[in-house]
Every structure is written in structure tokens, then in C-alpha cells.
Design goal:
82% of the residues lie in helices and 10% in strands. It is an alpha+beta fold. It folds into 2 domains: 2-57 and 301-403, Gyrase A, domain 2; 71-251. A 4-stranded antiparallel β-sheet has the order 1-2-4-3. Helix 1 runs antiparallel to helix 2. It is rod-shaped.
């Protein structure tokens, strides 16, 4: 019996040593993983900074290209507007010239119409005068016939007086005919003079209209030339102003780029300084956690030694109800890597587990492992609460379970 007890104690010590070595290896692996993770994080931060710098440089290049494209588009738009204004002005000048020509043609047509109306009125007066002369001649002829008839009636009585009267009448008729011929000659001369005057007036009007048209055209050409000169001067001044504005904008953009680059450099320097401070803080926290871990480990080792002494004392007095070594081995297999135990209490047949973890899911996994193990039964969750260990936020918990006396394998 003593040999069997010694063998059990030897096995328990070996199991405890194996569990401690396993915990130590796990702690070392976690430390190495944390170091690798920090290095990976630093590399990722450096890559992100490099990508951010490249993206910023690309954005600056795109902004410069977009600014140049906008300037080129503005210049093209201004040139198109200038060409359109010149075309509109040329069209307006052509329209004004056409309107002036149409006005001159209308004025010439009005003068021609007035001349035609004057000629028609003169022809109408001449026709009326001729009709009046014809009517007078007809009346005189009728009177002459009447007188001739009266003379024929009185011929027998006074042939001499009749012959004398006839001769007198013939003389008077000849004189009247001569007067009519002279009047017609004067009318013809008057008509010729009037026609000549009209032709002279028409020629003078045409010359005056041509002179006015030439003067108007010369004034329009001078105005167009003056307007074109002013437009060219305005376009030149506008181009100079635009060039000055473009230079100022380019200088402002260059200044802004330099300021942005300086700010980016300052931000990079601040970011590097913050990263260094964060690395120092993480290093300090890691050292603090290592010190706490070593202190806890020493405390746990002391408690384990105390428990070993108590167990040996209990084993020396009575047979234990539960094989503690197998419970510890199974518990070491069940506890996840993200969970560390700070206290174990065995009251009768109930085992109290107290510990901490940075993730509540790891505590839930521990509960599930205990409930699924045949070595433990009646597993209950007592409490969990947030706590702070140094600069790290963790969750403390307490779980109550009952080790089973049955010897079986885990499900």
C-alpha cells in the first residue's frame, strides 16, 4: 500500500511538473506570438503609412493634372468665346451693312417712285391741256361753221362784207393756230426742261446717295476697325490677366503643395513619435505583465507547494475521495490558452475555479469543455466582472464544478 501511494505521489508530481512545463511552454509561445504580432503590426503600420504616402502623392499628381486640364479647358473655352464673339460681331457688321444697303435701295426706290409720280402728274397735266386745246379748237370750229352758215345766209346781201369778214376770220384763225403752235412749242420746251431737271435731280440724288453710302461704309469700316482693335486689346489684356492669374494660381498651388508636404512630414514625424511612445508603453506594459506573471507564478507555486503539503497531510490521514492528480491533469487539458487560473479551492467534493481572461468567449469555451468532460459534472457559472491588471482590461470569473469519481475518457 505504501509503495502504491508513493507511486501515485510520484505520478502526481510528474503530472504537475508536466502541467507546469506545458504552461511554461504555452506562456513562452504566447509571448513569442505577441512579439511576432507586434512586429507584424509595426510592419503593417509602416506599409499603411507608405501606402498612405503613395496615395497622397498620387492624389497630388491627379490634382495637378486635373488643375492643368481645367486650365487648358478654360483657355479653350475662352478662345472659343472670343471666336464666337468675333463671329457674332462680324455677322452684326454684315447685317448692319446689308441693312444700310437695303435702306439705300429703299431710298432710291422711293426717289424713283416719286420721280415716276411727278412724271405721271406732268403727263396728266399735259394731256388735260391738250384736251382743253382740242375742245377749244372744236368749239372754235363749231363757231366758225355757224358763222360760215350765217355768212352764207348773208352772202347774198353783202358779199364784200362776207369776203372781208372771211378773210379777217382766216387771219384770226391763222394767228390763233400760230399762238397754239407757239403754246405747244413752249409746253414741249417746258417738258424737255422739266425732264432735264428731273434727270439732273435724279443724277444728283444718286451721287448724293452714293456719297452718303460711301461715307456710311467708311464710317462703318472705321467703327469696325476701332471695335476690332478694342476687342484685340481687350483679348490681349484678358489673356495677360489670365496668364497672371494662372501664374498666381500655380504659385499658390505650389505653396499649398509645399505646405501640405510639410504638414505630411510633420504628421509622419508625429505618427512615428506616437508609434515609438506606443512601443515604449507596450514594452513597459509587457514588462509589468511579465513581472505580474512571475509574481503570480511564484504565488501559484507557493500555493501549489502548500496544497501539496496539505494533500500529503490529508493522504497520510485518509484515502482521498477524488484523485487530485488526475483532476489537475484533466483540468490542465481542459483550460484554454486564453484563460489563466488564479485560485483553486476544493471544499468536500466541490471544486471552485477562479481566474481571468481578456476574452469572454474563452471563459464560455472553458464552461463548454467542463460540461462536455466526463471528469466533471454539475458545472455552474458563479460570476464574471471586468477588472484592470496594470494597463490591461480583463474579465475575472468564478466557476463551480464537481470532479467525478468515474474513470473514463472525455467525450
Amino acid at each position: 500500500e505504501r509503495l502504491r501511494q508513493q507511486q501515485e505521489r510520484t505520478e502526481q508530481r510528474q503530472n504537475a511538473q508536466e502541467a507546469a512545463e506545458l504552461k511554461k511552454k504555452q506562456a513562452q509561445e504566447r509571448a513569442e506570438q505577441a512579439k511576432v504580432e507586434r512586429l507584424r503590426t509595426q510592419q503593417a503600420l509602416a506599409a499603411q503609412r507608405q501606402q498612405a504616402e503613395e496615395a497622397a502623392e498620387l492624389k497630388r499628381k491627379e490634382a495637378r493634372e486635373q488643375t492643368e486640364r481645367l486650365k487648358a479647358a478654360q483657355l479653350r473655352t475662352q478662345q472659343e468665346h472670343t471666336e464666337q464673339r468675333q463671329k457674332v460681331q462680324e455677322q452684326a457688321a454684315r447685317k448692319r451693312k446689308d441693312a444700310q444697303e437695303k435702306a439705300a435701295q429703299a431710298k432710291t426706290a422711293r426717289l424713283r417712285t416719286q420721280q415716276e409720280h411727278a412724271e405721271q402728274r406732268n403727263a396728266e397735266r399735259l394731256r388735260k391741256q391738250q384736251e382743253q386745246a382740242t375742245r377749244r379748237q372744236q368749239a372754235e370750229a363749231a363757231t366758225a361753221r355757224k358763222r360760215q352758215e350765217a355768212a352764207e345766209l348773208r352772202q347774198k346781201q353783202a358779199q364784200e362784207r362776207a369776203e372781208h369778214a372771211n378773210a379777217e376770220r382766216l387771219r384770226k384763225q391763222q394767228e390763233q393756230a400760230e399762238r397754239q403752235r407757239q403754246a405747244q412749242e413752249r409746253q414741249r420746251q417746258q417738258q424737255e426742261e422739266l425732264q432735264r431737271q428731273r434727270e439732273e435731280q435724279h443724277q444728283k440724288a444718286q451721287e448724293a446717295a452714293e456719297l452718303r453710302r460711301q461715307q456710311t461704309q467708311a464710317r462703318a469700316e472705321r467703327l469696325n476697325a476701332e471695335r476690332l482693335r478694342q476687342q484685340q486689346e481687350q483679348a490681349t489684356r484678358r489673356q495677360q490677366a489670365e496668364a497672371a492669374t494662372a501664374r498666381k494660381r500655380q504659385e499658390a498651388a505650389e505653396l499649398r503643395r509645399k505646405q501640405t508636404q510639410e504638414r505630411a512630414e510633420r504628421l509622419d514625424a508625429d505618427r512615428l513619435r506616437k508609434d515609438l511612445e506606443q512601443l515604449r508603453r507596450l514594452s513597459t506594459e509587457l514588462k509589468t505583465q511579465q513581472q505580474e506573471f512571475h509574481a503570480k507564478r511564484a504565488e501559484l507555486l507557493a500555493k501549489r507547494a502548500e496544497l501539496e503539503a496539505r494533500r500529503e497531510a490529508l493522504m497520510s490521514t485518509r484515502q482521498p475521495a477524488v484523485p487530485v492528480s488526475s483532476v489537475l491533469v484533466q483540468l490542465a487539458k481542459t483550460v484554454p490558452e486564453e484563460v489563466w487560473l488564479t485560485k483553486l479551492q476544493l471544499h468536500g467534493g466541490s471544486l471552485q475555479l477562479m481566474g481571468a481572461s481578456q476574452d469572454t468567449q474563452a471563459v464560455a469555451n472553458l464552461m463548454a469543455s467542463l460540461e462536455g468532460s466526463k471528469r466533471f459534472r454539475e458545472t455552474t457559472f458563479v460570476y464574471t466582472q471586468r477588472a484592470t491588471r496594470g494597463a490591461t482590461s480583463v474579465f475575472t470569473f468564478e466557476i463551480s464544478t464537481t470532479p467525478s469519481l468515474q474513470d473514463g475518457q472525455d467525450s
